[in-house]
Amino acid sequence: MEPVIGLAVGRGTGPELAAVFERVLARINDIYDVGIQLTRSERLYHSYSSLKADTGIEQTRELTREDADHYAEFCRTQAALGVPAVFRTAINAQSLYLVRRRLQAVKIDLITAPDTSLLLVRDAAQGFYTGENTHVPGALVRTMTFSREITEKIIAFAVRRARQEWPDGGADEIVMAYKFHLLDGALDEWVAQSAARHGVAIRLCQPDTVNRNLIERGPRPRTLIIAGNEWADIMHVILLDRFGSERQENCCTENVYLHPALHGLAEYQTVHGSADDLEGKDTVNPVATVRAAAMLAERHAGCAGAVRMMERGLETLRLQGIGTPDLGGRHSTTAVVDALLDALEPEGRPILAGDS
């Protein structure tokens, strides 16, 4: 049976990056001959900039809800059809987090350094980011929820994922970064009960405590951090830079939906946003998108070694000085992708400086 991958596209540079994704996935498909098929959402979802361009507050709220409703239904439909994963370009965050709350999402990032592996599992299903807005004269009231059920699901997923990542014993340390002092002791109780159920030790810490410990001693060799987005969204780019030596613009990330109806549907995205200011200029950095294509192909379409192949191709481009302006290069998006497609080889010979 041919593997099927979903595709959802937002405004800004979304259509350009979707085209990059399709080209790269087609090249991987040719190399591995697995017959990957794409199923694309028919809606072009808004970015924040496209929403603000011609709309007022009420229309923004309406379009935000329409995008969320449509994308949630697209994900439900794909999961019901047995599609294992979706690639999505950036869309308006408010719409996205409405979906993440409904479908109970977590975001997963593995950040590696020579002596450290840090697994960050971000709680995208509850808290401030997933709140609902109520407008009253002169004010906006945002209401949010934390629940025992969702907290348990997120901890269970994170512990399971850590044991998959480190099968010889799991994480050396599990930390939860939440502003738990604001939650009447409820989160403390839920975490303690969940830790006991899973037979692990979990340290529930204030965000500033997590930051101080990371600054003073760094993470343990195998560290699992489960975090509310109130901390993780801000800190992700810092963790990438400090412990992964990587730029946000080059990175992709995985989301998993924990709602039973989604059957663990995975969603891959670029870490960078919609970059509306680069729309139509053919200068958007494609690295995160091509990495997502390789990750999807390897994990969900049977293309073993696709991620390694992609990294070899990107290293070839780096040695040849081929890159978009944000990386200090002078090449267009199209030129970078053209060169990358030529460089992709399933086994590949050793890459040498000066190769052309």
Automatic annotation (TrEMBL):
Annotated InterPro entries: ICDH/IPMDH, IsoPropMal-DH-like_dom
Question: Which keywords describe this protein according to UniProt?
Answer: Manganese, Metal-binding, NAD, Oxidoreductase
Concerning Pfam families, the annotation shows: Iso_dh
GO terms assigned for molecular function = metal ion binding; oxidoreductase activity
Give the required cofactors: Mg(2+); Mn(2+)
Isopropylmalate dehydrogenase-like domain segment(s): 4-340
Signal peptide: which range, if any? none
Name of protein: Isocitrate/isopropylmalate dehydrogenase
- Species of origin reads Sinosporangium album
